[in-house]
Amino acid sequence: MPSQRQITVRRAPKFVPFLVTGGLLGVIAAAIFGYSGPVPDGYTREAVFGYFLVLFVAAGVLVGGVVVLIVDRVSVRRARRATVEELPDDADGESPAS
Predict the structure, then answer these.
(1) What is the pTM (predicted TM-score) of this model?
(2) What is the dihedral of CA 62, 68, 69, 70, to 10 degrees?
(3) Which of 17, 20, 15, 22 is nearest to 56 (CA)?
(4) Among 3, 34, 46, 63, which one is least packed by beta carbons within 10 Å?
(5) Lowest-confidence segment of 16-20, 21-25, 32-36, 74-78 by average pLDDT
(6) H, E, C per residue of the chain
(7) How far apart are alpha carbons 13 and 69 in whole angstroms?
(8) How confident is the model at residue 11 (pLDDT cuts 50, 70, 90)?
């Protein structure tokens, strides 16, 4: 008789795309803030952009991480239980795909 098991099925988000998106939004925000405002005396426009780049990319990755954790928590709440049944192995050893 085949054995049955209970499993949890859920759609978990991938963390890396959320972090990369947050970082890219940080780059865009740094470009807007770095190139639109006045430049302080003794600094170049690129130095101002670099300063904002470090701050906004770090903040964007942090916000992306918080968002993915919230989405992951929601996916845990929406998880469903399912019953799976083990199928017997083929006698001749061939897989069904071949």
Answers:
(1) 0.74
(2) 110
(3) 22
(4) 3
(5) 74-78
(6) CCCEEEEEECCCCCHHHHHHHHHHHHHHHHHHHHHHCCCCCCCCHHHHHHHHHHHHHHHHHHHHHHHHHHHHHHHHHCCEEEEEECCCCCCCCCCCCC
(7) 9
(8) confident
